[in-house]
Amino acid sequence: MDWDQPLLAFGGKTGFELAVEAYASFHLSQHRYEQYHVEPRDGRHSSYRFGLYYSAVGPDIAKNDLMENIPLY
Known about the structure:
By secondary structure, the protein is an all-alpha fold. The chain has one domain (1-73). The chain has 1 helix and no strands. The chain starts with 14 loop residues before the first helix and ends in a 44-residue tail after the last helix.
């Protein structure tokens, strides 16, 4: 998954930038989780190192959209 691809629906922010913002908002309300954070690209548990493990709705063909097989109603 390319977490650095600008997303038009989010004003050009990347998935990584949105994850950092979202976690910062969550983190402020959850004081006991202060040791957790969004890992950078070279971090041991970085989201850049992970992808779709299993899909019950079809394979990840395009490798750029984890929701590509989910119908939009």
